[in-house]
């Protein structure tokens, strides 16, 4: 194949558990993401069961329509692992037992201090003509096999074994064999505005930007909603004459889109809101505390999930029960009686109470009705009050979220972080920046 | 098609974000899981990009090989949503604008107090001959379309909209049209034992049970690891003569497996550990408090995610910073200095401190090193101490978890809940029961 041409890719993931719904297929997303960052265009993915004929059929079809095919799953030692046999079948070759590989597997078991079981012999078989791909984390080696014009890479389904084999063994081969170049894209992260609102706001600015250059004329815009966030992805797609926007041309969109996406935009690039918040707080030398009711600790957990969070997170008081709101956050009995636990007054008291109790520079609070029970006509399920106290001022917002408990809890936790972010931005301590 | 025959199913999921690796396809797992519980055998799933020709090709191929095809994604109002046009293309029919549907969409926007954008008109178009599937949660209705012998159901890609439409609109049609019968299975939920250990322990008991009846002789056992949990699924598969285990026969396995899976087993059926914990605490009339360090509130959030958690959850003190451990949990300076914040002594002090500060009947604590930084030779990343205090006694465990921050945090949160569970079981307040 000509160097410089974008090879077409296919993914085949294998496993009964994927088609019974017992397992969410994170391997597919992992392979797709690695392929994307290599500039390998994935046109399709197919998921099949552990059945020899079905696997052979899917791989054959993929190999006929692509130059690279990434296959994973079904390389284990047990009777439901039939991928190797299926690949031999698909390629029309025999299976051969490789004594050298058998010795490799034996040594792996030795190192673990275990005896190699008879079933593991199976893992030393490969289709004739295949080249082994070493697996330093498990007993199942993968292999590469040429089928017509297509390079087929077969890897184990255990996520960390797959990840290691893909990055350490497969990617170097792909980079070497094809002139791979990533397709540039620009990611705009927003919170608080719907997909169609964003699309309407962007239409004018994007139409104008398309006139700036041939590359920009052909950009493709995706909207990825994950309520309350929508991520806008602007991707460079080649026009009929093969001209695609360069990263520098895409970056020229920033100022225009920044204006159009205000005040929902909080960042450019892949980094999440919690990551940006931790980065901004670290730079500002400020520490954060939280007071959570309906989110039950989910906000603190999102921040604690970021490596390095300990530099900025003091902790949280999860005051699920009103008694705790009073005892640890200093919320007054009267405020709860007069305004209810889900109210502006209580949210503000929780924020300043958390700031004090945790000794933090600033604190955010969340109190609301996550449902399914507990709603009233005046305060329906989804009513959430959030507040931020930073010693200078207090800010508050009331949200009407929907539709169900997990979505309301997740959205409330993210909105509260956005409120902190907005306050930092106002004080000049956070800015919309490029962060991946 | 003959009633009683198992219809063959296919899934088609649509979205550039699935093939760029930006989004893990939970919709595929959801549809597969619903299909399984309906007894609809899913032979294959295909994931394609938002490209009209590619979608049309995938759906056409699926419809030729199945009686039911579930399609999702690409029904939004924006320019990258091309699924409806692709379906018309695949079926060889025109698109028509449906004025009644346009009015439905208009009313949805009215109710949200927003103006319907011009782009939303697109969502009132359907392939000629299609029947709308109402969407009470969003603007995009789905539709059903017959293609040859195959019923094709097209649903939105927003997970909650898809979930509602599948269960409320599509499943009743499927149940009515086909004589669907679920394949019986029994789910055993365990925490703390590896996949191969479980398999070794179960081999003998299962071999013996296979002799009990023809149906049991053909059961299929899957191990689904999601560290630190492994779910054991025993599924009734018909033998060569078509005899499969009945639900009652599968239930006969309980006593034998319960013995073999001790002490890792905590429940039978689909219900998660947090759900079972909330149910047991509710029944016992006990309230729980938490003291979390490295999990950052994730344990409390897992419990707060369960509807009805307010009956048992007082709250949590997330003491990420040592100052908070001292101020709010009463951990002594000396204990932290002598033993370190990640130690048995501090874990025990945190648990009893939380019980006191939150006024709870019992409290659990978690303190550990989630990484990537902070590990030492003596206390490597993944060292986590957990403890429970219930006013009668204190229990403690030290864990060595791996491999990365998110896995360690999630595993620690679940282990702590298991420790609470074990304590309740010891006191006769929790039991292994069937709960879905």
Can you summarize this structure?
The structure is a homodimer of 436-residue chains. Chain A is α/β, with parallel strands linked by helices and 436 residues long.
Describe the model.
The first copy, chain A, has 436 residues and is α/β, with parallel strands linked by helices. Helices cover 40% and strands 23% of the residues of chain A. The first copy, chain A, has 16 helices and 17 strands. Chain A has helices at residues 16-19, 26-38, 52-64, 83-91, 99-111, 159-177, 195-209, 214-217, 247-251, 253-261, 273-284, 298-304, 322-329, 333-339, 344-358, 405-426; strands spanning 8-14, 41-48, 68-72, 95-97, 125-127, 131-133, 142-147, 150-155, 185-191, 220-226, 229-235, 265-268, 288-292, 313-319, 362-368, 383-389, 394-400. In chain A, the strands form four sheets. In chain A, strands 2-1-3-8-7-6 form a six-stranded mixed sheet, sandwiched between helices. Chain A has a five-stranded mixed sheet with strand order 14-13-15-16-17, with helices on both faces. A four-stranded antiparallel sheet of chain A has the order 10-11-9-12. In chain A, a hairpin with a 2-residue loop joins strand 10 and strand 11 (229-235). In chain A, helix 7 (195-209) runs antiparallel to helix 10, helix 11 packs parallel to helix 16 and helix 12 (298-304) crosses helix 16 (405-426). Chain A is globular and about 80 Å long. Chain A starts with 7 loop residues before the first strand and ends in a 10-residue tail after the last helix. The mean pLDDT of chain A is 93. At the A-B interface, helix 1, helix 2, strand 2, helix 7 and strand 10 of A face helix 1, helix 2, strand 2, helix 12 and strand 14 of B.
């Amino acid at each position: 194949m000509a160097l410089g041409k974008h090879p077409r890719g296919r993914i085949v993931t294998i496993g009964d558990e994927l088609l019974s719904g017992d397992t969410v297929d994170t391997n597919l997303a992992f392979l797709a993401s690695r392929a994307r960052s290599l500039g390998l265009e994935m046109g399709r993915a197919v998921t099949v069961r552990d059945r020899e004929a079905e696997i052979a059929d899917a791989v054959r079809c993929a190999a006929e329509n692509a130059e690279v095919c990434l296959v994973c799953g079904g390389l284990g030692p047990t009777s439901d692992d039939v991928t190797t046999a299926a690949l031999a079948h698909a390629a029309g070759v025999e299976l051969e037992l490789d004594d050298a590989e058998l010795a490799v597997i034996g040594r792996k078991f030795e190192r673990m201090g275990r005896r190699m079981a008879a079933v593991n012999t199976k893992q030393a078989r490969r289709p004739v003509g295949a080249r082994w791909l070493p697996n330093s984390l498990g007993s199942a080696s993968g292999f590469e096999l040429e089928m017509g014009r297509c390079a087929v890479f077969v890897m184990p389904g255990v996520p960390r074994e797959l990840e290691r084999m893909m990055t350490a063994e497969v990617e170097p081969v792909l980079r070497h064999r094809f002139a791979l170049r990533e397709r540039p894209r620009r990611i705009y992260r927003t919170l608080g505005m719907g997909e169609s609102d964003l699309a309407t706001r962007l239409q004018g600015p994007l139409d104008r930007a398309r006139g700036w250059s041939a590359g920009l004329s052909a950009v493709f815009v995706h909207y990825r909603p994950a309520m309350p966030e929508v991520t806008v992805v602007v991707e460079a797609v080649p026009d009929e004459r093969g001209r695609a926007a360069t990263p520098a041309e895409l970056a020229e969109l920033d100022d225009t889109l920044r204006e159009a996406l205000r005040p929902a935009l909080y960042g450019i690039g892949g980094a999440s809101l919690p990551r940006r918040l931790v980065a901004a707080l670290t730079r500002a030398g400020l520490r954060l505390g939280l007071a959570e009711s309906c989110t039950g600790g989910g906000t603190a957990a999102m921040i604690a999930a970021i490596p390095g969070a300990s530099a900025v997170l003091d902790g949280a008081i999860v005051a699920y029960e009103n008694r705790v709101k009073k005892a640890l956050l200093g919320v007054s009995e009267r405020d709860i009686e007069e305004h209810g636990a889900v109210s502006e007054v209580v949210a503000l008291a929780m924020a300043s109470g958390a700031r004090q109790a945790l000794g933090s520079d600033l604190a955010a609070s969340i109190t609301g009705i996550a449902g399914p029970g507990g709603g009233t006509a005046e305060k329906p399920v989804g009513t959430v009050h959030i507040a931020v106290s930073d010693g200078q001022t207090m800010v508050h917002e009331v949200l009407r979220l929907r539709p169900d408990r997990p979505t309301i809890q997740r959205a409330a936790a993210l909105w509260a972080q956005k409120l902190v972010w907005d306050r930092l931005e106002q004080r000049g301590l956070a800015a919309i920046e490029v962060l991946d």
